[in-house]
Design goal:
- By secondary structure, the protein is an alpha+beta fold.
- The chain contains four helices and three strands, in the order H-E-E-H-H-H-E.
Length: 137
């Protein structure tokens, strides 16, 4: 291809990419809304899973720690003799991981933190059962 053809091709692909992304965003918003509705419906029904011929939906509970009072959390870190620089600021994830582990091991909720639980909905395609003719002896 020459330069003119390459420019045209890149322009066309870029345009198509933007259009597909717009469609993706619309579909993703619809999926998120239906996921929220399905999660609420399953919770209201007291179900943790349900299935159709083609899909299985299941809810799992995920626990996490939220820092609600950073000063109290930092004071706790200092009182335990831990490295404050390692557990605060941009490295908040190691602190949350440690706090959740501590809660599971000892039942202690660290000062300045709070335990939260969120529902995570997963959708899996149903496993296809082999036909009788497909089974090899």
């Amino acid at each position: 291809m020459n330069v003119t053809e390459l420019i045209t091709r890149v322009g066309e692909l870029s345009h198509n990419s933007r259009e597909l992304y717009k469609q993706y965003k619309i579909i993703k918003e619809q999926e998120d809304a239906v996921r929220a509705e399905l999660t609420a419906t399953l919770n209201e029904s007291g179900l943790l899973s349900a299935k159709t011929d083609h899909y299985t939906a299941s809810i799992s509970k995920k626990q996490s720690v939220v820092v609600v009072d950073e000063k109290k959390a930092v004071d706790w870190i200092k009182s335990e003799g831990l490295d404050v620089d390692y557990y605060v600021g941009l490295k908040l994830t190691p602190f949350k991981t440690m706090a959740l582990s501590r809660l599971k091991d000892t039942g202690e909720v660290i000062e300045g933190t709070q335990l939260t639980e969120t529902d995570t909905l997963s959708i899996r395609e149903a496993k296809k059962k082999p036909l009788a003719n497909d089974i090899q002896s």
